[in-house]
Amino acid sequence: WEFAKEHKLSIVKVISGGNIKKEAYDGEGKLVNSGQFNGLLVEQGIKKITAWLKEKGVAKKQTQYRLRDWCISRQRYWGPPIPMINCSKCGWQPVPEKDLPVKLPYIENYQPKGVGKSPLAQAKDWVKTKCPKCKGPAKRETDVSDTFLDSAWYFFRYTSTDKKDVAFDKKRIKKWLPVDMYIGGHEHAVLHLMYTRFLTMVFKNLGLINFEEPFKRFYAHGLLISEGAKMSKSKGNLVIPDEYIKKFGADTLRCYLMFLGPFDQGGDFRDRGIAGMYRFFCRVWRLAQKFSAKGSPEEKKVIHQTIKKVTENIQNLRYNTAIAAIMEYVNFLTRTKGVSREAIETLVLLLAPFAPHISEEIWCQVLKNKFSIHQQKWPKYDPRLIKEKRVTIVIQVNGKLRGQIEVSDQASVISDQVEKLAKKEKNVAKYLKGKKIKKVVFVSGRLINFVV
User: Fold this and answer.
1) Separation between Cα atoms, residue 290 and residue 443, nearest integer Å
2) Which residues have C-beta within 8 Å of that of residue 94, sequence separation ≥ 6?
3) Bridge partners for 442 per DSSP
4) pLDDT tens track of the chain, all 452 residues?
5) Looking at the chain, which terminus has fewer C-beta neighbours within 10 angstroms, N or C?
6) Is 311 helix (H, G, I), strand (E, B) or coil?
C-alpha cells in the first residue's frame, strides 16, 4: 500500500460494514491513477509494471505452483509391495531388478489393526531380508503402492499385456496413443488427470514415447442425485444396481441412466423412471414381432431422419437425446399400419450401443440374422431423404375457419402435436378461451376442427 501510494499506482477503497478496506483492484479494464501506465489494458499493464519493478530492483517475476507431494503408499494388504529395503547401515536401497517383482506374502488376517503399521508387517519372515549393498540384515518396506499410481499409467500397459519383458511396446504406443477422449468426473480432472500427465511427461523425457499429453480431449460427466443429494457412500444414498438388473434387466438400467439428463450434468435417480424405460423395451420387443413386407409411405424418410439424429447425438455425447430420438421413432412405427423389416433392423442397430442384450436377441432370434449385431456396420442416412416438406393445416372452431398453421409433413399426421400447435394460434385461442372443447375432429395432413 505504501509503495503503491508513493508511486501513484492504482488503489481502490472498499467500504465494508462501515470500515474502509484498502485493496488493489484486480478486475478487467484500463489502468487509472497509475502514472506512466495510465490507459494500458490490465494484461499489458501487468507486463509493463512487472518489468518496471524489476528494473527498479524492488521485485522479480516468479511463477508460483500450487503442487503437493503425491503420496503413493498405503498401509493395507492389497496392492503391489513397494520394492525398497531399509538397512541400518546403508539406508534405503531399491530391490535389485533380478529380484522383481516383489510378491505379496499370504496373510490370513489382513484387516488393519489400527496400530500405524501395514498388515504386511505381520509377515515377519517376509519382512526380514538382506541389504542389496552390504548383505547385512535389513527390512522390507511394508507399505504397498496405492491403486492411484497404477491407474495413472495403466492405459500404456493395456497396449502390451502379452509382453513380459517390457512395460509397453513403443510401436504399439505410436499406433494407439495418445487417448482420443478421457471421460471422468470432476475429481478425475483435478487429481487423476494431473498424476497421469506427470507420468506421461516422465515417459516422454525418458524417450519412451513421443508425446507429452496423454489425452486429446477431456470430458467431465455429471453426477447422479438421489434423495436430493449427490449419490455417494458417505451420504448413505447409494443405489445397488443388482436389484434393478434382477427386476428389469441390465439394458433397462443402462438406458435409464443415460436418459436421466445430459451426460455432462447427470440427473435425479427415481424408481418410476426405470419402470417407464422397462415398458419402452416391452414395446420394442412387441413391435419387432410384427414387421411386414412393406412399410408406410413416409417410413423411409423417418428412418433416415432418425439415423441422422442418433448418429449426431452419439458423436456429441448427447445420449439422452439419442435415446429420445429412438423413442420418437418407435412411436412413429407403432402408429403406422405397416412396418418393414428395414425399419425394425434400423431400430435395433441404433439401439445396440445403448441396449446390447435385447438388440442381440431381436437381431438373431426374432429377425434370424447372422450373429452378432455388434459386428454389423452402423447405418448411414441419405441426405436427399431427410428434407422436410411443409404442410398447411386449416384450423376450424365449430366448422368455421379461424386460422391455419404450417407444420412438417411428418408432424401433420400426429393429432396431439397438431392440436397443441393449433390451440396456441392467436386467433384460435381467442375463440377457445373460457369454453369447454367437446370434441376434436382431425383430418390427417389437412385440418383440425374444435367443437365447443
Assistant:
1) 27
2) 83, 84, 85, 132
3) 448
4) 455 555 555 544 444 444 555 566 667 788 888 888 888 888 888 889 999 999 988 888 888 877 677 888 888 888 899 999 999 999 999 999 999 889 999 888 888 777 778 889 889 999 999 999 999 999 999 999 988 888 889 999 999 999 988 899 999 999 999 999 888 877 677 778 888 999 999 999 999 999 999 999 888 887 777 777 777 776 777 778 898 899 999 999 999 999 988 888 878 888 778 899 999 999 999 999 888 878 787 889 899 999 999 999 999 989 999 999 999 999 999 988 889 999 999 999 999 999 999 999 999 999 999 999 999 999 999 988 877 677 889 999 998 999 999 887 666 667 888 898 999 998 999 999 889 999 999 988 889 999 98
5) N
6) helix
Please provide the distance, in angstroms rounded to a whole number, between the alpha carbons at the two ends of the chain: 77
**Sequence-ordered list of residues with C-beta below 8 angstroms from that of 66, at least 6 positions apart, any chain:** none
Ramachandran sector of residue 218 (left: φ over 0; alpha: ψ -120 to 50; beta: rest): beta
Reported pTM: 0.60
**Residues 66, 69, 74, 75: is their CA dihedral positive or negative?**
negative
Picking from 154, 127, 351, the residue whose alpha carbon sits closest to that of residue 119 is 127
- Grid cell digits, residue 394: 386449416
Three-state secondary structure readout of 395-421:
EEECCEEEEEEEEECCHHHCHHHHHHH
Cis geometry, peptide bond prior to residue 178 (ω within 30 degrees of 0): yes
Which residues are paired to 74 by β-bridges? 144
The CB density around residue 84, as the number of other CB atoms within 10 Å, is 15
Q: Could you say which DSSP state residue 35 is in?
A: G
> What is the grid cell recorded at 351?
439401439
Under DSSP, the state recorded for 388 is P
Q: Is the dihedral of CA 198, 200, 206, 211 positive or negative?
A: negative
DSSP for 244-291 reads HHHHH-HHHHHHHHHHSS-TTTEEE--HHHHHHHHHHHHHHHHHHTT-
Q: How many CA atoms lie within 13 A of 236 on its CB side?
A: 0
402, three cell numbers: 379461424
Look-up of cell digits 423417418: 302
Nearest to 373 by CA among 358, 357, 360: 360
Which is nearest to 34 in space by CA: 20, 48, 21? Answer: 48
User: Distance between CA atoms of 271 and 278, rounded to whole angstroms?
Assistant: 11
